[in-house]
Specification:
183 residues, Chitinase A, domain 3
């Protein structure tokens, strides 16, 4: 009987400890995301004051060069584009992906088989091909547009390490939309 009571008390303590740990990690994650969003806001204010900035569902798209044409990118379209993806830490820091050889060389980065090894990438614009921050950020982009998209880890890879991106990383992409094909 005494063993059963000890086992129950130990089990309750273990469940309580797990709940506290999960609660702390949720708070820590929320604190990280809040700091990332504050850093993004400060960066936009300091570096892109006066620029056209489109905010949508946690992503900020800074228009460097406006596109042309009446059609804008929507889910289900095909997009032909060049890109450079950076980990964001108060600005672009480490390049983690690109399909532009000159950008790779400038940043000491080697394009691998997981990166597009050609000058232009084309793919279907949908949630299977893009993380949420890019879906939210690129939605509505025009053909010919050059933009920068920044978002917190909530809209990126969250708390997972993916390839050479550490967990809980805010991301920044520079994108050149070369062509949009309506499907």
């Amino acid at each position: 009987m005494k063993k059963n009571v000890s086992y129950v008390i130990y089990s309750l303590f273990a469940v309580f400890a797990l709940a506290v740990t999960l609660s702390c990690s949720k708070q820590q994650t929320a604190d990280i995301v809040n700091k990332q969003e504050e850093d993004i806001s400060n960066y936009l204010t300091g570096h892109y004051a006066g620029s056209e900035i489109i905010r949508k569902n946690g992503a900020s798209r800074i228009i460097i060069d406006s596109g042309h044409g009446a059609d804008s990118l929507m889910t289900g379209d095909s997009i032909y584009f060049n890109y450079a993806g950076f980990i964001f830490s108060n600005g672009p820091s480490k390049l983690f992906t690109t399909n532009i050889q000159s950008v790779a060389e400038k940043n000491g980065f080697t394009i691998t088989s997981t990166d597009s090894t050609f000058d232009e990438c084309s793919t279907l614009f949908d949630s299977k091909s893009f993380i949420p921050g890019l879906i939210n950020g690129l939605d509505g982009a025009k053909e010919g547009e050059h933009c920068v998209i920044i978002f917190s880890s909530t809209y990126g890879f969250q708390n997972k390490a993916v390839a050479n991106v550490p967990p809980s990383s805010a991301l920044m992409y520079e994108v050149w939309v070369n062509k949009i094909k309506k499907n």
